[in-house]
Design a protein that fits this description.
Chain B: Its main location: membrane. Chain B: This is ABC transporter permease. Chain B: Belongs to the binding-protein-dependent transport system permease family. The complex is a heterodimer of chains A (299) and B (318). Chain A has 16 helices and no strands. Helix content of chain A is 77%, strand content 0%. The longest helix of chain A has 37 residues. The two termini of chain A are 40 Å apart. Chain A is an all-alpha fold and 299 residues long. Chain A folds into two domains: 28 residues; 212 residues, MetI-like (MetI-like fold). By secondary structure, chain B is mainly alpha-helical. Chain B has a single domain, classed as MetI-like fold (Orthogonal Bundle). Chain B is built from 17 helices and no strands. In chain B, helix 5 packs antiparallel against helix 12, helix 10 packs across helix 12 and helix 14 packs antiparallel against helix 15. Chain B is globular. The N and C termini of chain B lie far apart (64 Å). The N terminus and C terminus of chain B are likely disordered. The chains are: A mainly alpha (299), B mainly alpha (318). Chains A and B meet through helix 1, helix 2, helix 5, helix 6 and helix 7 of A and helix 2, helix 3, helix 5, helix 6 and helix 7 of B.
Chain lengths: 299, 318
């Protein structure tokens, strides 16, 4: 066993003969490319299916015998038209956008200040405040939504998008704070000391030195918060009742699923349109997503 | 010229008005900086958490303030077969889905750790299921699991001829349970794979080189280098995954709403059905509170996973 390994490494190190190269090429194909291909196929198939369903006429949707279900023979925009003109979909999109931008802004401000205080203004017990905020991230919405519903009613915010803007920071602030603490840590402390010596105030330091250097972190936290609040479901389901104020994920499930016959074309078109903004956003900032995802886990 | 501006600038610096001075006073600044975050978290997280525990001991319903009833709600839940059913399915769902996610996600991470063209593009594509709103991809799964027009049934029956009849994915309890778990695994793989990939990239190649020189096989390198080095990050990612799988709500609510015959209720969906849809806030809160012991267990698991980190970094054991 060990000998073969040693031999193969030796063979790799020298110029390998042709058969060996072919062998390792085939091996690579079987061990890496084939499983990777399967993974990508399975991970992407639901999106392909979603997209193809939203452009299929109903006749094709319900008849697999005469049409190849994996392709569209006569694509139609009927489902998307129905969605945009016969339902409140544009209104839902607007509400979702408002909620996502509002809660993202709020949590970015709150968590930047908190992270700065914890990491840079170092005071006694600051690690414990950081730990407390981190623990808040471990409290899942499924435990909180019932008491939060009563709190929202007490504040008179029931059925208002403002309730969502105020509640979403409960899961955004811990995440963003933790991410930004990591970014602030990477900024050399000497820069701030220089500024202090030069007579800058703490707020000037934050605004002129720390924040500009933490821009990548701010972008990561921002796009992540935007995505998380766009995707949020359980609070939006529990706190919003009237059709016009619903967010896209909730509205599609509660307003478009009607009766016993599901309009799969319209449902899938709604899902596609609701996924597109985050997907586009994502494609623009892929690296920030990956770094924030892995950064938050590593911390 | 420049001298005068400098001196006037310095003068202005030396005599700041009281607001600027207040904001430069460290304790005040600390309080001001922490106030928004801690305020939001206290009002909308800590207070509701306490309120939830209190509600669990009352008989509150929507529109009526409840009175303290002691552990009556929990006593009732212990005799409720639906609650036991939800506990069973929550644990089963979490166990099977977590195992699936980590087995496949780890495999995918190992695959992505190789060098090949379009690597970053592939990494971007892989993360897509995790980015898209869960409810919307759940709807796609609902359509994929359609009893009549399921594409999987079509493949198996009409293309491959492996089966004679369509699969009834969501019509009976066990197939429905496994269909939901499959959808959850699909959604969870990207998160696990990308997080573990980040961990894999921190392992020093020199370790592998040393092992190769000593003649370690590919399996031995995985077993004695990759796996132990990955344990700390595995523990963290797994804790997150367990917590959020156990308290999952969206997938089940979107695809089956707990049906058929309440067989796929998770604790979260049962809490929603009783608490919000049914109006029994006290009972719903009790169901939600009954999730806490499981979550504490998962967090302790993370703590001990983290404790491992010390000896791996070569610091003193305590």
């Amino acid at each position: 066993m060990t000998e073969t390994v040693a031999q193969s490494t030796v063979a790799d190190a020298k110029a390998p003969p042709d058969t060996m190269a072919w062998d390792s090429g085939l091996r690579r194909l079987m061990m890496i490319y084939l499983p990777l291909g399967c993974f990508v196929l399975i991970l992407l198939f639901p999106f392909y299916w979603m997209a193809i369903t939203s452009f299929k006429p109903n006749a094709e949707l319900m008849n697999y015998r005469d049409n190849n279900p994996f392709w569209i023979s006569s694509p139609t925009l009927a489902h998307i038209k129905h969605l945009l003109f016969n339902t409140a979909y544009p209104q839902w999109l607007k509400t979702t956008m408002l909620v996502a931008i509002g809660s993202t802004t709020l949590s970015l401000i709150a968590s930047t200040l908190a992270a700065y205080a914890i990491e840079r203004l170092r005071f006694r017990g600051s690690p414990y405040v950081g730990l407390g905020i981190y623990l808040a991230y471990l409290v899942p919405p499924s435990i909180l939504f019932i008491p939060l519903a009563t709190v929202v009613v007490q504040f008179g915010l029931f059925d208002s998008p403002l309730a969502l803007i105020l509640v979403y920071p409960t899961f955004l602030v811990p995440f963003c704070t933790w991410l930004l603490i990591g970014y602030f840590k990477s900024i050399p402390y000497e820069l701030e000391e220089c500024a202090l010596v030069d007579g800058a105030t703490r707020l000037q330091i934050l605004r002129r030195i720390t924040l500009p250097l933490a821009v990548p972190g701010l972008i990561s936290a921002g796009i992540f918060s935007f995505t998380l609040s766009w995707n949020e479901f359980i609070y939006a389901l529990a706190f919003i009742q009237s059709g016009a104020n619903k967010t896209v994920p909730v509205a599609i499930l509660t307003e478009l699923v009607t009766g016993d016959v599901y309009q799969w074309g319209a449902l899938m078109a709604g899902s596609l349109l609701g996924s597109l903004p985050v997907a586009i956003f994502y494609s623009l900032f892929v690296d920030y997503y990956v770094s924030s995802l892995t950064g938050a886990v590593k911390e | 010229m420049s001298v005068t501006t400098l001196s006037s600038h310095a003068l202005a610096q030396r005599q700041p008005n009281w607001i600027v001075r207040l904001f430069d006073y460290k304790p005040f600044l600390i309080v001001m900086c922490l106030a928004p975050a801690l305020g939001l978290l206290t009002v909308f997280l800590t207070y509701p958490l306490g309120l939830g525990v209190w509600l669990a001991f009352t008989d509150t319903t929507i529109g009526r303030r409840g009175i303290y009833v002691g552990i009556e709600n929990f006593q009732y839940l212990l005799t409720d077969p639906l609650w036991w059913n939800a506990v069973f399915y929550s644990v089963f769902y979490t166990a099977v889905a977590t195992f699936g996610k980590f087995a496949l996600g780890f495999w995918l991470a190992l695959l992505l750790n190789n060098h090949f063209p379009f690597k970053s593009l592939l990494r971007a594509i892989v993360l897509l299921p995790w980015i898209v709103p869960t409810v919307l991809s759940a709807l796609a799964f609902w359509w994929i699991y359609d009893p009549q027009f399921s594409i999987i049934s079509y493949l198996l029956v009409d293309v491959l001829h492996w089966r004679d009849s369509n699969i009834d994915f969501l019509g009976s309890p066990w197939p429905a349970r496994f269909s939901l778990i499959a959808a959850n695994i699909w959604r969870g793989i990207p998160f696990v794979a990308i997080s573990l990939l980040a961990g894999l990239q921190t392992i020093s190649p020199s370790l592998y080189e040393a092992a190769m020189l000593d003649g370690a096989s590919a399996w031995q390198r995985f077993r004695y280098i990759t796996f132990p080095m990955m344990l700390p990050i595995l523990a963290i990612v797994m804790t997150f995954s367990i917590i959020f799988t156990f308290t999952d709500f969206q997938l089940v609510y979107a695809i089956t709403r707990g049906g058929p015959v309440n067989s796929t209720h998770l604790l979260a969906t049962l809490a929603f059905q009783r608490g919000i849809a049914g109006g029994e806030l006290g009972e719903g809160a009790a169901i939600a509170v009954s999730m806490i012991p499981f979550l504490v267990f998962a967090t302790l698991f993370s703590y001990f996973g983290l404790a491992r980190r010390k000896w791996q970094q070569g610091e003193a054991n305590d």
